[in-house]
Amino acid sequence: MANSDSTVPLPVVAPLSSRKENVTPIGSKIAELSESRTELLSRIQGLKQDLQSWRSKLDTQVKVYRDELSELKKSLNGEVEQLRSEFQELRTTLQQQQEDVTASLRNLGLQDVPGDEQLVQENKEAEGTKVDANGEETQAVDKDNGKETEN
């Protein structure tokens, strides 16, 4: 009795005809996969060619833009130099005109001597009139009694 309980069942072997039926669908699956693989490889090749074309066009555009920017930079640098030159000429002309006006005033005796303004301000302060920073006269205040002095 112990032999009947410990007996292991043997696997059932399928007949040859059922194995051939299983092999046929695998063959069609392999053909499908091969066709799918070929299609995917073809699409990948197309994408690679598109990418190569896009890179080529992009490189061309970048080169064109760089050339344009280089020309603009040269043009702007030339204009800046022209403006610098013109401003230098204006500065020189203005300095010459200022020197001419100063010389004319000296010849006419109308130019202020640098110390004259100081003397005018001291004289007015002595008279009781103060000159503020704007050159306007104001009444002096008597420090002793806080009243305005009259002139």
Structural class: mainly alpha
End-to-end gap:
151 Å
Radius of gyration: 53 Å
Average predicted local confidence, pLDDT: 77
Account of the 3D structure:
A two-stranded antiparallel ribbon has the order 1-2. 0% of the residues are buried. The chain is built from 3 helices and 2 strands. A hairpin with a 5-residue loop joins strand 1 and strand 2. The model has no long low-confidence stretch (mean pLDDT 77). With 151 residues, the chain is mainly α.
Write the layout of secondary structure elements.
Blueprint: H1 2-5, H2 16-108, H3 116-126, E1 129-131, E2 137-139
Antiparallel strand pairs: 1-2
Quick overview of this protein structure:
Helix content is 72%, strand content 4%. By secondary structure, the protein is mainly alpha-helical.
Which short descriptors sum up this protein?
single chain; 151 residues; mainly alpha; two-stranded antiparallel sheet; rod-shaped
